[in-house]
Amino acid sequence: MNKFMIKGEIYGEPRLYGGGEKTVCKALVKADKSYINVTAFGELSRILYSTTKGESIDIEGRIQSGSYEKDGKKIYTQDLVVEKFKNRGSELDEWLK
């Protein structure tokens, strides 16, 4: 089973790519002393994008590994892909899917 849950805060401003059904949001979340790359798709990407630096959030998702080449070197990545999202600072204290 590939399921993870983190509680943390948005570190920096989330970045939005694409549009419509293919919208992707990437953000960096600080959880304790770790920094975790987070990726959301579709409607969850727009919700994640609406968060601001320092906001407290809970995220449940799965780890996805990937790689790309830069300057002839292979770079390996790991992201937490958002499946459920909760903004602890909002009046809505519920999981968004």
List the helices and strands and how they pair.
Blueprint lengths: L3 E14 L6 E8 L2 E8 H8 L6 E15 L2 E15 L10
Parallel strand pairs: 3-5
Antiparallel strand pairs: 1-2, 1-4, 2-3, 4-5
Number of H- or I-type helical stretches: 1
Order of helices and strands: EEEHEE
Which stretches of 5+ consecutive residues score pLDDT under 50? none
- The percent range for strand residues is over 45%
**Helix percent band:** under 10%
Rg for CA atoms: 13 Å
Molecular structure report:
The structure is a single chain. The chain is mainly beta. 8% of the residues lie in helices and 62% in strands. The protein is built from 1 helix and 5 strands. It has one helix at residues 42-49, and strands at residues 4-17, 24-31, 34-41, 56-70, 73-87. A 5-stranded mixed β-barrel has the order 1-2-3-5-4. The radius of gyration is 13 Å and the shape is globular.
